[in-house]
Amino acid sequence: MNKPRKLRSRKAGLPPGSLVHIGEVKVSAPSYSIIDYDEHGLIEEKFAEASSFGQLPRKFSTRWANVYGANSPADLAAIGSIFSLHPLVQEDILNNAQRQKIDTYDDYLYLVLHRYELTPGPLELSQDQISLVIGRNYILSFQERQSKTFEPVRQRLRAEHASLRKGGVDTLAYSLIDSVVDSYFGVIEQLNEYAEELETNILGKPTPVTLERIHQFKRCVSQLRRNLHPLREVLGSLHRDAGDFFRPGVQIYLRDVYDHTVHILESLEDLRDLATGLLDVYLSTISHRVNLEVRTLTVVATIFMPATLIAGIFGMNFHEMPWLDLTNGFNYALSLMGMIGVIMLILFWRRRFV
């Protein structure tokens, strides 16, 4: 299947910080929302234009602004002006081909994460980029399209007397990062179920379609493993070097997310070995089936070889040969062929050749 190209060449020759959208447009129109909250309350607003971010007065101490489908350079420039984002940050938000990374600025952190989904028939790994700008009293989140990744966090914030409201920006940032990492476990479980189904098909009646599915599975595992390796470095750096933005109590939870990432990478290593093993089992199964068919053909050919020999002997042009002058000579020859074939079949059966 042909995938949309990122077309990085569109930025060739442009100065750093040039706002050019790179990637697939996954929503028809962008949408914007703001959640202001603290321990005293919460208010949630939705907008259709980016300029509304700067028009809504802050009513509580912590602000979470979310954008779905940030693909317009003009809209992103407006948001960047409101929150004083560096041009390079704005450029990276518009570039949906970023690797997972973290950049540190004076007043905020810029974090790039990925969200993954498996699409069946054929099996493919769908990737969405999530950009987080973690400020002192606000968080900006940019997603390519609407998803349920952050919905549990929203539900926790909406609940009255929620502990998340008392935590501040660093607790919210941890919750968002943890939601993204936890979503990977669902992808790992789907891959495990797919591998079990493949194994059943391989041990049953494998077909060329099974081989194609093995390659799809192997490609998805390799792509996911390659893309998640930078995440371990990002979370390690976030835990060690972002003390100005995360309190010691929250850093403990970041370390837990880092441990989850290590566990996910170990699971991907197991899946990669499993993919290689499934391919070996498939080839071994096909080879075994070919051997069985060749053995069956060999037995059949061997059983008919004496009959061919006898027919060849009686077909020679000699005037005097046994049974030529007998009335039942032909029947004697056929009986001899059948008797030898039956004897050979019994011998093969006892030796488990058939």
Summary keywords:
7 strands, 354 residues, 8 helices, alpha+beta, rod-shaped
Write up this protein.
The protein is 53% helix and 15% strand. The chain has helices spanning 73-83, 87-94, 151-158, 164-167, 169-203, 208-241, 248-314, 329-350; strands at 31-38, 41-47, 62-68, 101-104, 109-119, 124-134, 138-143. It has a 7-stranded mixed beta sheet with strand order 2-1-3-7-6-5-4. Helix 5 (169-203) runs parallel beside helix 7 and helix 7 (248-314) runs antiparallel to helix 8. It is rod-shaped, with a radius of gyration of 34 Å.
- Uncertain residue segments: none
* Helix-and-strand structural type: alpha+beta
- How many runs of DSSP E, i.e. beta strands? 7
**Which bin fits the share of residues in helices?**
40-55%
Give the overall silhouette: rod-shaped
**How would you write the strand order of the largest sheet?**
2-1-3-7-6-5-4
Give the terminus-to-terminus CA distance: 44 Å
Brief write-up:
By secondary structure, the protein is of the alpha+beta class. It has eight helices and seven strands.
